[in-house]
Amino acid sequence: MNGTNSYTGGTTISSGILALTTTANVAMAYTNTAGGTLSVTAANPTTSLPMTSLTLGSGLPTLTFNLGGFRNFSAPPHQRRRKSGDECSVSVNVQNVVQSGTNVLLQYSGTRSGAGNFVAGSIPSGATITDDVANKRLFLVYVSPNQPRVIISVAQHE
Fold it and tell me: Distance between CA 40 and CA 64 in Å, rounded?
């Protein structure tokens, strides 16, 4: 879905892919319980997909983050007030990462419940996913294989 979303009733993803961008969406509850995929594409590095809650159930849900080739994010693609119901491992895919560094993918507040966790799905080579429960965020650390390397040679003089 592209463009402005004015629907506020909450959305349940039971299979397939719900693809959204971070532009002008209304904050609502999202539920992904039966193996569907919630895919969010960054429209720019300063906006998030607002959520009132995100419930991830026991049906192997997937979250996909498309960073859109942007650099220097000041807002995570997913921003929500509370996170609940993680009953299993949630697969995390990340696409179109162009800059080495750390990108916050998901940030939440409130109480997290359930025994589930986030696991790397399809992510770029050189990337790792970190589920930072203490600081209530999920982030990607990426070291680009194309990152310039500085080689310093030291000549010994006798």
Answer: 6
